[in-house]
Amino acid sequence: MANEELPPVDRNSNMKNEKKFICGVVEGFYGRPWTTEQRKDLFAKLKKWGMNSYVYAPKDDYKHRAYWRELYTVEEADHLSSLISAAKDHDINFYYALSPGLDMTYSNAKETATLKRKLEQVSQFGCEAFALLFDDIEPEMTKADKEMFQSFAHAQVSVTNEIFNHLNCPRFLFCPTQYCSSRAVPSVTRSEYLNTLGSKLAQDIEILWTGPRVVSKFLTVDGIQEITEVLRRPPVIWDNLHANDYCSKRLFLGPYSGRSPKLIPLLKGVLTNPNCEFHANSVAIHTLAHWSKCTAEANIDNAISADIKLETEGGDQSGFDEEVTPNYLAKNIYHPREALKNAIHDWLPEFFLEKEAWGPITKPHPPVTMVMPIIPIIPSVNTCMSLTTTTTATVTCTQTMKVPEVNTTQLQALAEVCSTVTGAEGIQPLPNVVMNSLVSATKIVTNDTIPNPIVSNLSLPDKLQVPCLSVPIMTIKEAPGVIGEEVKRDLKEEAGEPIEEDITEKDEGKVIEAIGASETEAGTEVMAIVDENPSPHSTTEPMECGSSALSSSPKQKSSSEDVVMSESVSTSSGSMHVETSDGSLNSNAELADDVSKQLTSEDLSLLCDLFYLPFEHGSKGLVILNEFHWLKSNASVLLAASKKSPQDPGTAQKPEIQEWLQRSEKFNSLCHSIMMLAKKFSVCINKELVYDLFSYVWDIAGIVALLNGFVKWLALAHFPSNINSYTQGSYTWFSKGWKDTFMSGEQEPWVFRGGLTADLQRLLPVDHGNDLFLYKLPDSPSSNFFTVRPYVFTDEDTVYSICHKVCRDSLDGPENFPENLHSISADHLVGPFITINPEFCMVMECGSLGMVGYICAALDTKVFYKNQQMCWLPAMCLKYPVEMLDSSELPQSIKDSINYFHNFKYECPQEVLNTYPSMMTCGVLKEQLNHDPSVAKRLITVLLAALRSNGSFGVHVCINRADRYMHQFYTKLGFSEITQDTMRIYLGRNF
Q1: Lower CB count within 10 Å: N or C terminus of the chain?
Q2: For residues 202 and 130, what is the distance between their CA atoms, to the nearest angstrom?
Q3: Is the pLDDT confidence value at 898 over 70?
């Protein structure tokens, strides 16, 4: 072979390097790639932790996959050369990878020559290691290829061997199309494709393998020996354990686990393909590095983690202690929790490095709607999607195992809960935008003259015009004065204010938002890239997350405009806007100055537990799941107390009541610790890191606040004895078969969308429908987190004040309210509720902003109106005598309220009461709604849970027919029109 022509010294050196265990990172996820500076930071960490390899393979980077034929420009070459040089400086093997399989014609000599030319160019930059990736492509050949090659495998082998020999490099990786057991057809040992690779691919080429699944919970000795025999060489593991590009609500901060160090001698290497968020990967990479240096694992039976005990032994779920790990472990022994502690210890100092984030930042996940098959979730069945069809799934049983009793009908529904798909017909997943991270993480190809390489095998023109504008995203703030005023001014001119555009549910399957940042006379523009003919095999998985190609005819944008990524509304909470370097969190000043409130190792341990691993929730996550479920399921014990408040010490002597109250207090304590974690995190001075992770912290803190608000409402004991019959209908973590299937690892993790955040939200006894995870992120990190609690009488003045302000914002409230009549609107709209039915009244508070909204309801509308007529209206008639109507200075809305008090007549249509027996009213400050429209949604979630706990499954509101403001307000909360008359409109919602 060509290697034999090398000088003896070089050959011996190469042989020594080849024997070295490959351990490092593959940047192989879908979505926004890492930046050049982040990659250089990664090289330093890899060297520090004793790792040796990095694979450049970002699926959505400009010239890696979609436009692989194009050579690099001078500017791009400078960046790539600097990366390769930086890797060498840190003794890291830099593998440059290309993914040409989307549209390559293997039999075309020009195509092979183009591939050689591209890799030769990178070789001139100093790169000495390469990879060809053929994952996530159609396993079909063109007519010309079928005439030339015996099979798809022969075609790939022919091209790969030729490239390998041409480059004359000792390090070369190959990713097969069948890259895991579940994709092997018909099985690993009988796969003609894999056997052909094993026998025909040059022996010095290493082959990548993900294990039994795309995301594998376990790697076993038997599995590795099986694939080694077929490939005739030990594999290099492409490990997707920490990959999160398939779900924008999941982050994985747990330790490397499910792989015994005993596998190391059986492998050529391990490369982790981690979280999209660069700063979220410290634990994943650090623990892998620790694992790679071990030869044995700790005896898990003797040091079983608290979360496993919690699930399998049904122990005391009220404990909040950390898992117990062995006190003394030899250096060659690997224990995941011990590795996690060490990783957290090294991660913590990064939070205290002062770094600034520039420009608008969004989650780096692909802006596509998740598509998955709706099939029964049975542990022995694989649900990986087929790459060749849009409506069918490839189901392959790879092994037999003892399956727990599972109700397949119920699990069918569970699959529907986790999936956004309600029908297979007409599903057209969107391709991702294509970026150029070698220059800027925000450069996106938008020129419609570039053909879509997925549509057909077309040769691209020699030159491509790519309209894009570089926008600096992140800059390390070294010291005052490092960034000059001129640079600051230029950056501010380039990065304008982004705009969010509402996308209806109808449009969610069609549009990828790309938010423009250039300022024009008309303001900031928004551009949407529309895919008229999306690739039918585009799906969202770690190594299969959809096509990276643009539409063949996207909307055109001038070269003077800057386009940056923004997530689709269907999968995100919205975009985050990064404050400038001069910005400060004034509302958090007190918190930031208090050193005692800085992040600690315990805080990071809690953070990791909340975002643990694809098939395992962390111990604290399981505690909050189990505690809330227990409190909800056992709340009926409070009814055994006297009519006094359950909080009264005299009524809490019964053991079961005392236990409930104690555990509710512990639950409140854990919720408080999560809120404190979120507040500390929001004021962290490393804003690069904060902007990477804040959206996840915001989501989990918001859900926990709602759960805690519902528990506080349960403590009031305003529900019937059969509450469990109304609150156990949803499919949750505790439904039969759910956690067994989740923890088995037999399902790909994208089946369980949302992770712990979703499991917590589904515990609230409310049918969320499509409302899951649509809570909007704040524009920038904030310590003002929302809390919901039951109304107390001391809240009356504040509730009245909010009601008055809301009325002034709507058509019912003109600006000229007399000072002495400011309370009349509240007396009309909320007074009866908080007086007659305070148990169904709740308020929302938001950090330093105080109370920002309220919501009030009546369980039975007929009973409520009857009580109002007897107990409330007489007092109002005295307070607002009918003679006031004679005043010509009073606005009409006040006269309407006075008429209502004196001439009340119950007229709610029966058609409304039949389906929507409860009624409610809600008010949120307009400025808060403009800042975060989800405030009212959070409020109503807790209220609907309270109503459902009392057997109501429908609620309505009655508004003035001319009040467009409130009509729009309730419509956004999921209400739809039921009926109307000349004066009123009735809107209702089921839950």
Answers
A1: N
A2: 14
A3: yes
Retrieve residue 659's tokens: 């236990």
CA torsion sign for 40, 42, 47, 52 is negative
Is pLDDT of 455 > 50? Answer: no
Q: Is the peptide bond before 186 cis (omega within 30 degrees of 0)?
A: yes
Tokens for 803, please give them: 């009601």
39-81 confidence digits (pLDDT tens): 999 999 999 999 999 999 999 888 999 899 999 999 999 999 9
Tracing tokens 């919205």 back to the chain, one arrives at 574
The pLDDT, as a whole number, for residue 432 is 57
Name the residue with tokens 């302000």.
Answer: 805
8 Å CB contact between 762 and 731: yes
Contact residues for 64 (Cβ-Cβ < 8 A; gap 6+): 56, 57, 58, 97, 98, 99
At 876, the pLDDT band (50, 70, 90 cuts) reads very high
Angle between helical axes of 934-949 and 964-972 (0-180°, round to 10): 70
What is the C-alpha separation between 961 and 40, in angstroms, rounded? 61
Give the strand order in the sheet containing 841-846: 786-790, 841-846, 851-858, 918-924, 954-960, 984-990, 976-980
What are 664's two structure tokens? 């509710």
Radius of gyration of the chain (CA): 30
Residue in this structure with the two tokens 């505790």, named with its chain if needed: 734
* Cα separation, 610 vs 603, whole angstroms: 11
Amino acid symbol at 408: T
Three-state secondary structure readout of 268-294? CEEEECCCCCHHHCHHHHHHHHHHHCC
CA 824 to centroid of chain Cα atoms: 45
Q: Which two tokens stand for residue 81?
A: 């050369």
Comparing 330 with 675, the larger pLDDT belongs to 675
As a dihedral over the C-alpha atoms of residue 814, residue 820, residue 826, residue 832, rounded to 10 degrees, the angle is -140
CA–CA separation, 316 vs 301, rounded Å? 19
Strand partners, 530: 511
What three-state secondary structure class fits 824? Answer: helix
* Closest of 1, 139, 130, 128 to residue 55, by C-alpha: 130
**Which residue is associated with the tokens 């980077």?**
61
Query: Is 740 one of the catalytic residues?
Result: no
| More confident site: 518 or 931 | 931
What's the average model confidence in pLDDT over 186-207?
Answer: 96
CB 205 within 8 A of CB 174: yes
Structural tokens at position 396:
């392959």
Specify whether the CB–CB gap between 755 and 611 falls below 8 A.
Answer: yes
The answer to whether 196 touches 156, Cβ cutoff 8 Å, is no
pTM of this prediction? 0.79
CA dihedral 185, 188, 193, 195 (to 10 degrees): -150
Catalytic residue of the set 103, 136, 531, 827: 136
Lowest mean per-residue pLDDT among 163-172, 273-282, 321-330: 321-330
Q: Is residue 40 classed as helix, strand or coil in its secondary structure?
A: helix
Cα–Cα–Cα angle for 277, 283, 288, rounded to 5 degrees? 115
**DSSP H or E run through 356:** strand 355-357
Name every residue whose Cβ is closer than 8 Å to that of residue 605 and which is 6 or more positions away in sequence: 322, 340, 341, 344
Closest CA to 331 of 300, 305, 296, 301: 296
Cα 555 to Cα 532: distance, rounded to the nearest angstrom: 11
Question: Tens of pLDDT along 363-378?
Answer: 777 654 433 333 333 3
Query: Taking 80 as the threshold, does the pLDDT of residue 872 lie above it?
Result: yes
Phi first, then psi, for residue 688 (nearest 5°) are -60, -50
Which distant-in-sequence residues (6+ apart) come within 8 Å of 458 by Cβ? 103, 451
Detail the DSSP E strand segments found in 391-510: 435-436, 440-444, 474-476
Residues facing residue 361 across a β-bridge: 576
Q: Residues 751, 372: contact at Cβ < 8 Å? A: yes
Beta-strand relationship, 129-133 and 93-98: parallel
- Looking up tokens 């005739």 gives 232
Query: Which residues are 528's β-sheet partners?
Result: 513
